[in-house]
Amino acid sequence: xxxxxxxxxxxxxxxxxxxxxxxxxxxxxxxxxxxxxxxxxxxxxxxxxxxxxxxxxxxxxxxxxxxxxxxxxxxxxxxxxxxxxxxxxxxxxxxxxxxxxxxxxxxxxxxxxxxxxxxxxxxxxxxxxxxxxxxxxxxxxxxxxxxxxxxxxxxxxxxxxxxxxxxxxxxxxxxxxxxxxxxxxxxxxxxxxxxxxxxxxxxxxxxxxxxxxxxxxxxxxxxxxxxxxxxxxxxxxxxxxxxxxxxxxxxxxxxxxxxxxxxxxxxxxxxxxxxxxxxxxxxxxxxxxxxxxxxxxxxxxxxxxxxxxxxxxxxxxxxxxxxxxxxxxxxxxxxxxxxxxxxxxxxxxxxxxxxxxxxxxxxxxxxxxxxxxxxxxxxxxxxxxxxxxxxxxxxxxxxxxxxxxxxxxxxxxxxxxxxxxxxxxxxx
Length: 428
Ligand code: NDP
Hints:
This protein is of the alpha+beta class. The protein folds into three domains: 57-104 and 227-377, 3-hydroxy-3-methylglutaryl-coenzyme A Reductase, Chain A, domain 2 (Alpha-Beta Complex); 109-216, Hydroxymethylglutaryl-CoA reductase, class I/II, NAD/NADP-binding domain (Alpha-Beta Plaits, 2-Layer Sandwich); 381-427, Helicase, Ruva Protein, domain 3. It contains 16 helices and ten strands. The chain has a four-stranded antiparallel beta sheet. It has a four-stranded antiparallel beta sheet with strand order 5-6-4-7. α10 runs antiparallel to α11 (285-296) and α10 (260-280) packs across α13 (351-373). The longest helix has 23 residues, at 351-373. It is globular. It starts with 13 loop residues before the first helix and ends with a helix. NADPH dihydro-nicotinamide-adenine-dinucleotide phosphate binds next to α7 and α8.
């Protein structure tokens, strides 16, 4: 990618941005022709959901400067919140100067569950399941043979007992977990088919009765990690030395480790970036969010998903790990035109490569947010777009938006009432 064409990208108009992406090599001129058709047709949308009325649109933008495992990316993000893309790009720019993100992606194993209740003899049931493990795996694979043909399928079986809790009034459950390699797919439908395919057999083997059979979105066997190491001379900011920013940022990360009230906001910032790329890529962001927040509570307390520490040489080291069971095929990925466009923009990544990009965006987002928070505060960076949003809410259009926004930035109270008053003044 020739990044020189992307200089001052934020100052370009739409056409210039698209042309710059072609010149930089992120898109082809054929892709450009398709950008006019990114909207969902009524026919397509009607086939995606029930009772379709209209399409609810979100802005699709790009974050720049991402250097992930030695490769440059322009990252599509679908999001309505101002400043997120700017923050991701700014964070990634500093991290790129410090050799970028290094990622580690685990094997992509998804988990399916069958919940059995009223099992008469737990010890017998567990032994019988263990004895018939191979048959269970065979039956699961027979329920979805095409994933096996592709080289994936059910690989392992685990049993968990959830004891009855008399105080809470909950019964005992025997949980059967199937581990499945879903290759390039997120795999919800593949797994649900497999789990339903083995349910009756599991009832026979255990004497229990199945309550439900479904994928677990707590994808603890599909983890993505990103790491970055930033020298302190890249951290100086607004009167703070690089060492001060590093130390304050580490303290901010420690605070989010010990205080759940802070951890939720810390992780929300990470998910700003993650969800936006997950959504742009046509993946199921509810699944990713649910899994991420559960992972944040894995030790019994809700904690920060990322951590920041000092390297031996004084650099700042950041790390983020979370479950990222995204797909490069399946669901709406292959049918939503904007998801297809995003895929081309990223160079048609595999599911693992997409995980690397997404976890890096989460870390960049976290870096930028913490750096702002421990120095000048978060509002300063938000002001510009916030002012524009207020100007639009007040009814400004065209050139008036910029004029109202500019005056709002220096106004005593930056709120809707001030925006309305300023607009009235300008109009008169
Ligand atoms: P699909 O049902 O679209 O299945 C993906 C299909 O892609 C596979 O079955 C396979 O079909 C095909 N495929 C082609 N190439 C490959 C490859 N290289 N690797 C793997 N599969 C390939 O999607 P998923 O099963 O991934 O399910 C995701 C959808 O399920 C999302 O839309 C999600 O919102 C939804 N969902 C989520 C739930 C949850 O999260 N709890 C619950 C229910 C649904 P074949 O081999 O037959 O060609």
